[in-house]
Amino acid sequence: MKTFNEQCYDLLMQITKGKVTTYKLIAEALNTKAYRAVGNAMKNNPNVLTVPCHRVVNSNGYVGGYVNGIEKKIELLKNEGIYISDNKIINLSGYLFRF
């Protein structure tokens, strides 16, 4: 059986370039309300090059944290065509990936 973190990473692999999801949506897809545990899984992602944890943001559109720094997360998201202003995604619903 996979760990909670591994289950989070499996879900993340479904998110295509140019889309984002939220900590809450990942938790709900795993039938839990452990939103902070999802954030902790992202923070401890051992494969940031292959598991796109930069595509997980806060429900209010703010980019949230990132293991390599918020500036790097914003850079990665912008490179995928996501518009961000003041650390917040503009039109989050247009980029949102739901499981």
UniProtKB/TrEMBL annotation:
Instruction: Specify the Methylated-DNA-[protein]-cysteine S-methyltransferase DNA binding domain's residue ranges.
Output: 4-82
Keyword list, A-Z: DNA damage, DNA repair, Methyltransferase, Transferase
Keyword Transferase appears in the UniProt entry: yes
What Pfam families is this protein classified in? DNA_binding_1 (PF01035)
- Listed GO biological process terms: DNA repair; methylation
Q: Is Phosphoprotein one of the keywords?
A: no
Query: Which parts of the chain span the membrane according to its record?
Result: none
Q: Which reaction does it catalyse?
A: a 4-O-methyl-thymidine in DNA + L-cysteinyl-[protein] = a thymidine in DNA + S-methyl-L-cysteinyl-[protein]; a 6-O-methyl-2'-deoxyguanosine in DNA + L-cysteinyl-[protein] = S-methyl-L-cysteinyl-[protein] + a 2'-deoxyguanosine in DNA
NCBIfam families the UniProt entry points to: ogt (TIGR00589)
Cross-referenced PANTHER family: METHYLATED-DNA--PROTEIN-CYSTEINE METHYLTRANSFERASE
Query: What is the protein's given name?
Result: Methylated-DNA--protein-cysteine methyltransferase
